[in-house]
Design a protein that fits this description.
There is one protein chain. By secondary structure, this protein is α+β, with helices and mostly antiparallel strands. The protein has helices at residues 15-24, 30-41; strands spanning 2-3, 8-9, 49-52, 57-61, 72-75. It has a three-stranded antiparallel beta sheet with strand order 3-4-5. A two-stranded antiparallel sheet has the order 1-2. It is globular and about 35 Å long.
């Protein structure tokens, strides 16, 4: 199920399949998006995934993305990421 602000869509794909299709539409792939998140953030259990850098769309999973029950929360905008040190 995909929930948007004013509507809900029923899709017959897993969260990862849906995410992979969205990323593919901008000429990238899920494997590359995950590899980039790992490279930037290191080994953490749930990486935020940059879906569309042109529109500043980032996805934050509530569980590991391999779990079909994961909820992928979309952040429409993000700002400059700063090192917490």
């Amino acid at each position: 199920m995909v929930r948007q602000l004013h509507r809900t869509l029923i899709v017959e794909r897993s969260p990862l399949e849906t995410l992979a299709g969205s990323i593919k539409c901008i000429g990238s792939d899920l494997k590359g998006a995950i590899a980039t998140a790992k490279w930037i953030l290191g080994h953490i259990p749930m990486w935020p995934i940059l879906v569309d850098p042109f529109h500043n769309i980032c996805i934050f999973p509530t569980k590991t993305t391999k779990n079909d029950e994961a909820i992928l929360v979309k952040s429409k905008s993000y700002y400059k990421i700063q090192d917490p040190k």
